[in-house]
Specification:
The chain is an alpha+beta fold. The protein is about 25% helix and about 30% strand. Strand 6 and strand 7 form a beta hairpin. Pfam families: Acetyltransf_1 (PF00583).
């Protein structure tokens, strides 16, 4: 099986090229358009980038953000107290060449970044996903990142996702209970109401014919 390897500055042109190739195929607002400097910084200064190759061709990459004290931090969107911001890891952008989609790369890359974040001493994994980016939403939620919020960010609506990944956290993913409340991911009015009622989106089931997946909502467990 093709391995994920940590990328270095020599890979920057290939990362940028793949990013723009994938962004061009997505509806507006489904993914953030990143700057070249964003990728350069995340190769070392404030994160790590991992990739998979077919020969010399980069077929997928994923960005792990390890924000420093002065860097933007997804934790502020979750209203984390200042003493927790240093524990945050960003499960940030990904891109998979269209030729290699449908092989489980997105989920695998989330799991890989969570493991690296743990090794870096981070205990809170945070991510953002557009409600209409169905493949990314299904993959991300399937790895245990739960929806805790919904805001305007990166040029569109974004779910705010969180998973606690400290050494004392249970790595076993739960099964959907009978009590879960289900709604479509693009039914934003219902999603907002359920969030306001204190629920989190812990499950995500794909729907047929490319329609919006269904999110399963359950009461949040106090941190």
């Amino acid at each position: 099986m093709t391995q994920l390897t940590r990328l270095d500055p020599s890979h920057l042109p290939a990362i940028i090229t793949l990013h723009h190739r994938v962004i061009a195929d997505l509806p507006p607002g489904n993914a953030a358009t990143e700057t070249d400097q964003f990728f350069a910084d995340h190769l070392d200064a404030c994160g790590q980038i991992f990739g998979a190759f077919d020969g010399d061709r980069l077929m997928a990459y994923c960005v792990l953000g390890l924000p420093r004290e002065t860097d933007p931090n997804f934790g502020t969107d979750h209203h984390l107290p200042p003493d927790q911001l240093g524990k945050v890891a960003h499960i940030d952008g990904v891109a998979v060449d269209p030729q290699w989609r449908g092989q489980g790369w997105q989920r695998r890359m989330v799991e890989h970044r969570i493991e690296i974040a743990r090794k870096c001493g981070r205990t809170i994994a945070l991510s953002t996903v557009a409600p209409t980016n169905f493949p990314s939403l299904i993959s991300t939620v399937s790895t245990g990142l739960a929806i805790h919020g919904l805001i305007a960010k990166f040029g569109g609506n974004r779910f705010l996702l969180r998973r606690d990944i400290g050494p004392d956290q249970d790595a076993k993913l739960p099964s959907a209970p009978d009590r879960a409340i289900w709604c479509a991911s693009d039914d934003l009015a219902t999603c907002r109401k359920l969030l306001d009622d204190g629920l989190i989106g812990l499950f995500c089931q794909s729907s047929p014919h490319g329609t919006a997946p269904r999110i399963g909502w359950v009461p949040a467990i106090p941190a």
